[in-house]
Amino acid sequence: MIVLEKRPQPSRAWSYATPLVAVLATMVFGGLLFAILGKNPVQAIGTIFWEPLFGEFAFYYRPQLLVKGAPLVLIAIGLSLGFRAGIWNIGAEGQYIMGAIFGAGAGLAFYPLDAWYIFPIMVVAGAFGGWLWATIPALLKVRFGTNEILVSLMLVYVAEQMLASVSLGLLKNPEGFGFPGSRNLQSYESAHNAELIAGSGMHWGVVAAFIAVIFAYVLLNRHMLGFHIRLTGEAPRAAKFAGVNPARLILFCLGISGALAGLAGMFEVSGPSGQISIDFNVGYGFTAIIVAFLGRLHPVGILLAGGLMALTYIGGEIAQSQLGLPAAAIQVFQGMLLFFLLAFDLLTNFRIRAARSEVA
Amino acid sequence: MTIPLLSLQGLTKAYPGVVANDQVSFDIGEGEVHALLGENGAGKSTLVKMIYGLVKPDSGTMKLRGNPFAPPEPRAARADGIAMVFQHFSLFDALNVAENIALGMENPPPMGDLASRIREVSETYGLPLDPFRTVGDLSAGERQRVEIIRCLLQDPKLLIMDEPTSVLTPQEVDILFETLNKLRSEGTSILYISHKLEEIRTLCDHATILRLGKNVGECVPAETSARDMAEMMVGSTLQTPERSGRELGEVALDVSGLSVPSPSEFGTALRNVHMTVRKGEVLGIGGVAGNGQDELLGVLSGEIPTSADAIKFKGQAIGKLGPTARRKLGVLTAPEERLGHAAAPDMSLTENALLTGSVREGLEKNGFLKWTETRSFAEKIIEAFDVRTPGPENAARSLSGGNLQKFVIGREVLQNPDVLVVNQPTWGVDAAAAASIRQAILDLAAKGTAVVCISQDLDELMEISDSFAALNEGRLSAPRPTTGLTVDEIGLMMGGAHGMEVAHV
C-alpha cells in the first residue's frame, strides 16, 4: 500500500521542482489527448511551445507574449498578496473591466485636448476604478462578515453589465455610425498607451507589471506588512496574537489587488485593445488566478508563470489555426497545467512511501 | 510464584526514525495497580496500544495468565478482558449516557436492562451516574465516569487508564481513587499511566519507568521518593526551582470588574474577574481546563478587547489596546497552544522570533524588517533556553513540543517584560525542561516582573506562585497566599467536585 507521510518541514527542492514537473506532465498527457484527437502529439506540443518563440513568424508572436503576459502578471501579483493571507478575490475580471471604464472615461473626458497630463490621470483613474470595485466586497466582509469569494465574483457580472451599458451609452463614440463601443484611444495620442519601442510589444503595462513584481517581492520579504500577510495565511490565530488587524489587512489586500487589476484593464483599453466595447474583457482576471497559483504565489514565480500562460495562449491559437485543434482541447490543456501543479504540490509537504498495511 | 496476569517479554516497536519501544519487559500481577511512568515521548502510549491490540509489536511476546496473547484488534483484546479508558473521551454529546454505552457494545441489551446495570455498577463502585442524562451536560469528571463504567460493564481483568486525572479536580481524583481501590480489592488489575508522581505514590503497588522507549527501572512507589522517580524518568539529576525571598513592589497589573463574552461558540465567558499582581509577584491561576483560561489569556494579551478601565498597567488603562501596543508597554503573553497560536507552524524560528519580538527588540525600522538582527534574536533564544534544533532557519513544526515550548517562553522572557502572562507554560514538556522554564519564570519575578501563570498543574502552581486563585466557569476566586494553602482548600476554590456527591461505599 502507498502511504503519504507528512514531511517535518516543507521540501524546498520540491517547491521549486513541482512547476517544472507539472509542465512536463502536462506535455505528456496533453500529447496523449492530442494523439487521441488524431493529431501528431509531438508536432502539436512543438507548435504550442516552440512556434511562438523560435518559429518562422516568431518576430510577430514574441511581442504578443509581452502583450498577453503583462495583464496576467499584473493581476496575478495583486491576487497573490490576498491569496497568501487567505483572502480570496475571485473577481479580478470585474475590477479589470472597471479599471478600463474609469481609465478610458477619464481620457475621453478630455477629448480632443492634447496634454501630457492626460495619460497619468488615466492611470490613476484606472487604478481607482479597480480599487473601488474590490473595496465593495472588502467593506462588506469587514462590516457584515460576507464571503468575499461570492461578492467579488458576482460583481464581475455587474461590471460586465456596466461595460455593455457604457459601450452603448455614456462612452459610445459619437462618430461611430451607431456601432457600440467608444472612440479608439489608439488614435487619440494623449491617451494612447503606445509601444515604448515600436514593434517590441513593450507598453506601459509591461513596465507596470515588472514594477509590481519587484514591489511585491520587497513587500513580502522585507516589510512588516508582507510578513503579516504571510502570517495571516499560515496561522490566523498567531497573526491575531502578533497584533495583526484583520480588517485592515482585508481592506489592503483586496484594495491593492483591485487597483492592480484596474491598472491592467486601463493599460489594455488604452493600448492593445484601444477601445471600450461590449466584448472588451477576455478572461484575464480569471486566468490570472491560475497564473498566481502556477507561480506558487511568489512574485518571481508569477512572472515566469505569466510568460508560460501567455505562451500556451498564443501557441494554442497557432495550433488551432495550423493543425485544426479544437479550442476546447487547448482549454483542457491549460486546465491540465493547473491540475498537475496542484497534484504535484502535495509532494512539497508529503513524501510517498510504500508501506505494509497495519491496523491503526 | 504465581503466574502474573499479563507478562510482557522484549516488546519492540519501531516507527520510521524512532524506536518507540525497545525490548520492554515487565509483569502485571493479579489485583495489582501497576504504574507506567515516563516523560512525553517515552513510549507509554505505544506500549499500551500494543496491549490493547491497536498496534502490532515488531518483536517480543505477551502472555495473559500464561497463555500466548497477541490481540490482532481491540475487539479481541476486549474479549480477553482488557479494557481501556482513553485520555480523550469518545462520547457523543447529543446522546444520553446509556445510549453512549450501548454504542460501544457488541450486543447491547435492551435499554431498560442496560440502564439498570449501569445504575448497579455505578453504585457498587461509588461512581454515581444517571443513565438518562445527556452527555453534553456532564462535567469532564462525569464523562470520565461514563468511560469507566463502559469498561466495567465488560467485567475486565485488566483496566488500562491513560492519564485519568488530568481533567479532574482534587476531590474528583479522590473519588476516582476510591473506585480504583475497590476494583483492586476485587482482583482487577489496573495499568495506570501518568506522570504525576504523588498520585502514583498514593495509588500504585508497583511502577515501571520508561525512558526513550526502554524500561529503565522498576520501583515500589510508596517506598520511593517522588524526586527519585522523576530522576529515573529523566535520567539525570533534577534542579528544583529556587525562589529567593523578595520584596513585592507596587501593583503592576490591575484587573477589575472584567466581564467579556467568549469569542468562540464553545468558550466560557469571563464574569466579573478581579485581580492585582504586584511587581515581583507570581500569581498562579488554577482550574480545570475550559473554565475560561484561554479567554483570560486573550483578554490580557489584547486579542480580545475589553472596556478600557477593566485592565490597568501601572495605573494606565490598557483594556482597549491591541497586542502590539501592550508589548510596547511591557505586557507580554505566551498562549497555551504552541502551534498555530503562539507560533506559526510552517514558518522558521527566525520568523517566529519576529512574531512577538519586533517591537521590543527593535527588529523593524519604518516597517522594514531587519532579518540579521531577528536571526540573532532567534539564536539568542535557542542558546539561552537550550532549544534543540539544527538552527533558526528550521520550521517551528519540526521541533518537538517541549523544545518549541522552551522557544515560545524564552522569546517572551528575553524581552524583559514588566508583566508576563503564561498559559500552561510546561504543558507536554519533559521534567528537566519544565524545571528550567519554571526557574526562568522565577528569575524573571526576582528581577521585578509581575507574572500571571495559568496552569492546570497544581504542583507547578504551588511550586512557583506567591498567591493562588482558581478559575471556575469564568469566575476567578479571590487570590490567596500560597503558603499554608491545603489541597482541600484549593479543590474547593476550583469548584469542588462540580456538585457531584461522593458516594460512600
Would you kindly provide a written description of the structure presented here, covering whatever features stand out?
The complex is a heterodimer of chains A (360) and B (505). Chain A is 70% helix and 3% strand. Chain A has a single domain, classed as ABC transporter involved in vitamin B12 uptake, BtuC. Chain A contains 14 helices and two strands, in the order E-H-H-H-H-H-H-H-H-H-H-H-H-H-H-E. Chain A is mostly helical. The mean pLDDT of chain A is 91. The longest helix of chain A is centred in the N-terminal third of the chain and has 27 residues, at 58-84. Chain A starts with a strand and ends in a 6-residue tail after the last strand. In chain A, helix 1 (12-36) packs antiparallel against helix 14 (327-349) and helix 9 packs antiparallel against helix 10. The radius of gyration of chain A is 22 Å and the shape is globular. Chain A has helices spanning 12-36, 41-49, 51-54, 58-84, 92-109, 118-144, 148-168, 204-222, 224-234, 236-242, 246-270, 284-294, 299-323, 327-349; strands at residues 2-6, 350-354. A two-stranded antiparallel sheet of chain A has the order 1-2. Chain B is of the alpha/beta class. Chain B has two domains: 6-234, P-loop containing nucleotide triphosphate hydrolases (Rossmann fold, 3-Layer(aba) Sandwich); 251-339 and 417-504, P-loop containing nucleotide triphosphate hydrolases (Rossmann fold). Chain B has 16 helices and 23 strands. Chain B has helices at 44-51, 74-79, 97-103, 111-124, 140-152, 170-185, 197-203, 226-234, 293-301, 323-329, 349-357, 371-384, 401-413, 431-446, 458-464, 487-493, and strands at residues 6-15, 18-28, 33-37, 59-64, 67-68, 82-85, 158-162, 189-194, 206-211, 214-219, 251-260, 270-278, 282-286, 311-313, 316-317, 331-334, 364-365, 368-369, 419-423, 450-454, 467-472, 475-476, 480-481. In chain B, the strands form five sheets. In chain B, strands 13, 16, 19, 20, 21, 22 and 23 form a seven-stranded mixed beta sheet that branches. In chain B, strand 14 and strand 15 (316-317) form a beta hairpin. In chain B, helix 11 crosses helix 12 (371-384), helix 11 (349-357) runs parallel beside helix 13 (401-413) and helix 12 (371-384) crosses helix 13 (401-413). Chain B is globular and about 70 Å long. The relative contact order of chain B is 0.12. Mean pLDDT of chain B is 86; it is low at 498-505. At the A-B interface, helix 9 and helix 10 of A face helix 10, helix 11 and strand 18 of B.
